[in-house]
Structure formats: C-alpha cells, structure tokens
Amino acid sequence: MDRPLYVSTRGGVAPVDFNAAVMMGLADDGGLLIPAAIPDVTSKLSEWRKLSYPELAYEVMSGFIGDAVPADDLKALVQRSYSTFAVPEVVPVKAVGKLFICELFHGPTLAFKDIALQFLGNMFEYLLARTKGKLNIIGATSGDTGSAAIHGVRGKAGIDIFIMFPEGRVSPLQERQMTSVPDANVHCIAIKGTFDDGQRVLKELFNDMAFKRDYHLGAVNSVNWARVLAQIVYYFWSAFRVTEATGASSIQVSVPTGNFGDIFAGYMAKRMGAPISRLILATNENDILSRFFNTGEYSLGKVVPTLSPSMDIQVASNFERYLYYRLGQDAAKVRETMALFAKDKRIIVPGKDEGFAAGRGDTAMTLETIRRYYRESGYLLDPHTAVGVAVAEQYAVEGVPTVCLATAHPAKFAATIEKALEPGLAVHPTLEALKALPTRKVLLEPVKGVIKEYVATTLR
Ligand SMILES: *Cc1c(COP(=O)(O)O)cnc(C)c1O
User: What residues make up the domain containing 418?
Assistant: First the structure.
C-alpha cells in the first residue's frame, strides 16, 4: 500500500502524510491541507454499494490514509467511532415527500458534527499513543461544536479538553451537553463575557508560542482534514441508498452550509466519482456563500443571528480548499487571492461552477418549511435542515432524486419547532435525561492570564 501525501493550499508546507496532517490541523503556512491527489474510485462503486456504513467508511478513508495507519488499526478505529451512534445503520436515509432525508444526527450530541468528531477523537488518541504524545485541546464555542468536541475526546488517554463558552449566552440545553460530561479530562469554562471574548482569548493563547509549545495546544476546528475525510463517507452512502431505491443513476445533494466543511466533503466525493450530479448549497440570511456561487463575488457581510445558529457565519473557514481547485490548483494564486480578501474583504472569481446550485432560505421560509413538512409528511425538520430543504425545492430536476442532509435532531432546537408548530413535539430521551445529571463548570474572566493559569493548575 502506498502513503498519500498532503500539501497546503498556499504551497508553503513540505508534503506530509495523513498522521502529520491530522496533528497539524491548520497548515503551518496559514493555508489548509489538501490531498496531493484525489483517488478515482469509479471502478469500486459496485463493490462499495454492498458495504455497511463502517465498512464503507474504512474503504473511503483508507484511500486517503494508505499505510500511515495499518489496515486493522484503522478498521477497529472506524468501528469504534460509529458504535456510539444510536441506530444500526449509523446514517439512515428516509423518503419524505418528494425528497430523501439523510439523517446525520444519531451520534451522542444529536448533530452531524459527531460524525467527524467521534472519528477525530479516536484518531487523536491513537496517534498520541503511538508517539507517547500529549494534546491539550482548547476551544471557544457558541454552542454546538463544543459539545461535539467534548463527546469526541471524553475519557481519551493523552488528551485534555478545555472549552470556553459565554456564561448565560448559550442555551441551557447546549450548556448541559457540555457540563454534564463527568470525565476527568473535560474542563468547561464559562467566561464572563461574549462569544467574541472567547474567540479573542483563544487567539491570544494560540499566539503565545511558548505556551502553545509547552502545553501542546491543539484545536478541533473544522479545518482539520480528518473532519472533512469522515464527512465524505455519507455522500457515497446516501447516493448508494437512493439510487438503489429509485433506479436513478445519480442524485443531487442539498447541504445546509456554514463553514463550507460539510459541502466541501461532498465536492471531494463528487471528484472521486460518487454518482452525484450536483451539490445544492443552502445558506440562511448569512449568505456570503450563496451569493458567491450565483455571482462570483465573495464579499464579507455582517453576521446576523438566525434560527439556524450553526450557519451564522460569514467567513467560511473551509472555503479556501474549494478556491484552490477553482483556481486550477495554483497555490500562488490562492495566496494572492486570500491576501486580497484580507485587505479588501472582497474578491471576484470569474466563471461559474456548474457542479453547484446555491440559494438562501430565510427565517420565514425556515418556519414555513418546518410547518409544511410536519403537516404533509409528519416529519420534523430542525431549522438547519429546513433551510436546506427550502433551497432544494427550488432546484428539483426530473429523474434526479434530491437528498437533503439533516444536520441536527429537531429536539436540539425545540424553541424554533414550538414557534413553527406547537410545544412538546420535538423531544429526545438523551436530551430529557440531561436535565437530571449533575454538572460542572468554572466561571472565569475572559483574560489570557487567567485562562493560562487555570489550564496550568488543572494539568498539574
Ligand atoms: C456545523 C453545522 C452546520 C454547518 O456545517 P458546515 O460544515 O460548517 O458548513 C449545519 N447544521 C448544523 C446543525 C451544524 O451543527
């Protein structure tokens, strides 16, 4: 078996293998790591159709990992990562009205980020055990990513995780999903401030080179290549399930998009040869990406809060990976374009990518879509999924089934479901059980010195 290599979108990193790419996270030159070559898997599709989700995950991933991780180790690691999901299929695909819904929310925190973070947590633990290394993950969250990251690494050897969240500004449910985790390596820090204060302190900690080195700081943000890799799998999986069910030769996939991580995985799957004719990019009112795919202009707007908070993002951290391919895999051009964006907050990319359609689903459409699908099909959409469904409806094509990725369980956003319909419809036993669990957190000032001191004493 060979060993695939990774390069930076900005061309300033000597090629590294998968293991080094996972531990590096963000590329050392400020760019993002991407595979030096994308495997063409068209000859394997008929075999892959027959596989279970973990078997398929192993096949897809091994093409990007090669002998950097021995086959038996990777198989066991993948099995373990998806055994925490509540349903045997891991990712069920259901016919709902004229669409198919691919349910990505059966992991421990009921959101699609579990698919990547359950795998990444196990991969970190595995790689650290091999090098006898240590990793201290520090993150700032406004809600969902923090809990998925905590559940990905809880109880893992060699890892401690510190998550900062703004006291009183995340929903009680989101807070409980973090603070009720009893493992000794999990440290929840409520900060006396806003999400932006958390982000600022985080940046200051990572810019403190001595601290970063001495304390082996790491991040779990959505730019880690392992997260994209784990997400490629369900594009193949849903394409197989839906082409089987309908007899169609390809599908289109609608993706509720924030940081462009999920849909970039779809772009990779399509380039590898998955039977996907088109990707439909759906944003809420924070529509920098849907504007880009419709006009070629990528220009920064102001972040506005919506009913789909995990998509309330303007600068999409994974967009640079796509830009690299769009600019002909020319790292110098990427460097130049990103420098221009940093300066002007606006770039223009000529031409159009026919592999994408894009649109925006606003608050009214989100509520209307949740209401209509519940009344007509008895199916509850969470507000993020509803944005994807609302946009997908505008791009229906005769003979090509549409799959909508469902990125969260509706019970995580019960207030919005109540607004659209009525109280008491969106419930989940895992979330109900949280209410009775003891919680732990410390309350600290959002000041670099204070957080540093807390990390140091906790680890001592
Ligand atoms: C993170 C998230 C998204 C957006 O995914 P990206 O990879 O950032 O585009 C959509 N829905 C939910 C529920 C999420 O948690």
Answer: 93-109+226-429
